[in-house]
Design brief:
Strand content: under 5%
Oligomer: single chain
Helix content: 40-55%
Largest sheet: none
Number of strands: 0
Radius of gyration: 18 Å
Length: about 120
C-alpha cells in the first residue's frame, strides 16, 4: 500500500512537471499587487511620462527576474525604465523602442519565463 502511494505521488509530480514545461510563456500571471491601474488601461507611455500607469508598468516589469534591476515604483518613466523596457521588448522579439504601447503592455502582463538576451543596463 505504501509503495503504491509513492508511485502515485511520483506519477503526479512527473505529470505536473511535464505540464508546467508545456505551458506557453504567456501562462505566467501578473502579480496581484500590481494594481495601480486596471489591467485594461494601457495608454502609450514614453520617456518623461509620470503617473499611475507608469507605476503599473514599473511594477509589472519587476516581475522579470535575473539580471535586470528592479525599478523604483515612483511613477516616473526615466532612463533606467527605458533600458529595461527595451530589454523586455527584445526578449519577446519586439522592436526595442523603449515605448510602452499595446504589444509591450501585452508582454508586461505575460512575462517570459526566461530571456537569453544579455541585459545592457
Amino acid at each position: 500500500m505504501r509503495g503504491s502511494r509513492w508511485v502515485t505521488l511520483g506519477t503526479t509530480l512527473c505529470t505536473a512537471a511535464a505540464l508546467g514545461l508545456a505551458l506557453p510563456h504567456g501562462a505566467v500571471a501578473a502579480p496581484a499587487d500590481c494594481s495601480y491601474t486596471p489591467s485594461t488601461y494601457r495608454p502609450t507611455l514614453t520617456y518623461g511620462d509620470t503617473g499611475p500607469a507608469v507605476e503599473q508598468a514599473q511594477c509589472l516589469s519587476n516581475v522579470w527576474g535575473g539580471e535586470p534591476p528592479k525599478l523604483a515604483l515612483d511613477g516616473v518613466f526615466d532612463s533606467a525604465m527605458v533600458k529595461k523596457i527595451e530589454w523586455i521588448q527584445g526578449c519577446h522579439g519586439l522592436p526595442p523602442s523603449g515605448v510602452i504601447e499595446g504589444r509591450t503592455w501585452h508582454v508586461l502582463y505575460r512575462p517570459a519565463l526566461d530571456c537569453y538576451d544579455p541585459y545592457k543596463g
